[in-house]
Amino acid sequence: MLEDERSKIGRRVLFLAIPVLLENLFQLVFSFVDMIFVGFLGATALAAVGLGMQVINVVLAVVSALTVGTMVTIAYSIGAGNYEDAVKYLENSMILGFYLSILILLFGLFGSDRLLQILGAKEDIRISASLYLKYILVPGFLIVYMSIISSALRGAGDTKTPLYASIISNTSNIFLDYILVFGKFGFPKMGVAGAALATSLSRLLGTIFLLYIIYKRSNLLKYKFFYNFIPERSYSLQILRIGVPTSFEQLFFNIGALVYATVVLSLGTKVYAAHRIALNVESLSFQPGFAFGVAATTLVGQYKGAKEDNLARLASVEAWKRAIIFMGSVGVFLFLFPEYLVQIFTRDVEVVKYASSVLRIIAVIQPLLATANVMSGSLRGAGFSKIPMVISGVGMWFVRIPLAYFLAIKMNLGLVGAWIAMSTDISLKAIANYYMFIVKGYYKKESFKVKYEEVISN
């Protein structure tokens, strides 16, 4: 009987994870296409877009307070059979998203350039990165609503619709990148700004598609548009109680990544360009871990909502096993043939050499990266998002950053030293998250507060 249940859950894991994996691969096309086209503009433009993406990651960390909170609360509600609550959580997340979009717009207009100055970006890189960020962040509502709706659908067990939205967005992004970056078909040559505008326009198409789905087509989330701009306290608190720790986790991580990036920036423009390219290539192996992490979050949340704690643990383990298989396979390819992937982005011999050397380092720890992703996702699905927040924050600020400075600068190991520090951080996070969810048995503990009074008292 247990074997039948394991097989059934294994199929559910794949059913949820494969569309997310494909969606993430299409999302990679977003960054890959931007980097490939911008790469033709030179190392400065490449570094500017890379730095801009680092800042956008910080914005996405703030948005995750809503996306993760929405996904977990909806998954729990669906598991408990409370479909009306699931719709309420979506409605309130959309209202909160409206106010967050305004803050992102204001940051894009008045704060992004100042942040780049604080980070110590050279003037030529700063000017291009600032322009790139304005085209992305001023229409920040596209990032917010595309993320919220996709997460809501995943929490309800629908990972295919966000995949379709990603296909629409990325297909249009390729075409728009070509005409706006290089000035084709009568359009002006916009360079770095063109890459950013193409991304925003393609996100607009994806957002329109998702809004149509939840308004007309979704079976579980019958969302209706309304003009209420005041969120309901009980539902909003529940979303934020689950999501805010994840937001802080990603903020700690991404702000730390910016500090970490300054260490790499100090090694020179070409080294930083190699670092960004290596991160893009490495994300090929990261995507299965993220996809199975989402599957673990959804299933753990649904099983916890149904009061099936042992099945929640089983879902986590099955997702973990499959993530290791997928990521280990990609890791072998990364270790053996990194140069071929790096050369997609640049033919600069020095940049290729730097990027290839560090990709072999990250290839070795792919099973640990899989563990970190799935187990942190499992903890969030169970409602314990504060635990991965603490683990991630400690790892970034007390392991990765100081160790990178020591190895890269003091020990003169350069980019290799910085990536050894990153690999050490990932390995320790994997061990800590696994220990908390599986060994300490957090899959059996109750965190999700259903009633309004419980939310307030918590």
UniProtKB/TrEMBL annotation:
<feature type="transmembrane region" description="Helical">
    <location>
        <begin position="354"/>
        <end position="375"/>
    </location>
</feature>
<protein>
    <recommendedName>
        <fullName>Multidrug-efflux transporter</fullName>
    </recommendedName>
</protein>
<feature type="transmembrane region" description="Helical">
    <location>
        <begin position="415"/>
        <end position="437"/>
    </location>
</feature>
<dbReference type="InterPro" id="IPR002528">
    <property type="entry name" value="MATE_fam"/>
</dbReference>
<keyword id="KW-1133">Transmembrane helix</keyword>
<feature type="transmembrane region" description="Helical">
    <location>
        <begin position="36"/>
        <end position="53"/>
    </location>
</feature>
<dbReference type="Pfam" id="PF01554">
    <property type="entry name" value="MatE"/>
</dbReference>
<keyword id="KW-0472">Membrane</keyword>
<keyword id="KW-0812">Transmembrane</keyword>
<keyword id="KW-0050">Antiport</keyword>
<feature type="transmembrane region" description="Helical">
    <location>
        <begin position="387"/>
        <end position="409"/>
    </location>
</feature>
<dbReference type="GO" id="GO:0006811">
    <property type="term" value="P:monoatomic ion transport"/>
</dbReference>
<feature type="transmembrane region" description="Helical">
    <location>
        <begin position="58"/>
        <end position="81"/>
    </location>
</feature>
<keyword id="KW-0406">Ion transport</keyword>
<feature type="transmembrane region" description="Helical">
    <location>
        <begin position="93"/>
        <end position="111"/>
    </location>
</feature>
<keyword id="KW-0813">Transport</keyword>
<feature type="transmembrane region" description="Helical">
    <location>
        <begin position="192"/>
        <end position="215"/>
    </location>
</feature>
<feature type="transmembrane region" description="Helical">
    <location>
        <begin position="285"/>
        <end position="303"/>
    </location>
</feature>
<feature type="transmembrane region" description="Helical">
    <location>
        <begin position="251"/>
        <end position="273"/>
    </location>
</feature>
<dbReference type="GO" id="GO:0015297">
    <property type="term" value="F:antiporter activity"/>
</dbReference>
<dbReference type="GO" id="GO:0042910">
    <property type="term" value="F:xenobiotic transmembrane transporter activity"/>
</dbReference>
<feature type="transmembrane region" description="Helical">
    <location>
        <begin position="132"/>
        <end position="153"/>
    </location>
</feature>
<dbReference type="GO" id="GO:0005886">
    <property type="term" value="C:plasma membrane"/>
</dbReference>
<keyword id="KW-1003">Cell membrane</keyword>
<dbReference type="InterPro" id="IPR050222">
    <property type="entry name" value="MATE_MdtK"/>
</dbReference>
<feature type="transmembrane region" description="Helical">
    <location>
        <begin position="323"/>
        <end position="342"/>
    </location>
</feature>
<feature type="transmembrane region" description="Helical">
    <location>
        <begin position="12"/>
        <end position="30"/>
    </location>
</feature>
<dbReference type="InterPro" id="IPR048279">
    <property type="entry name" value="MdtK-like"/>
</dbReference>
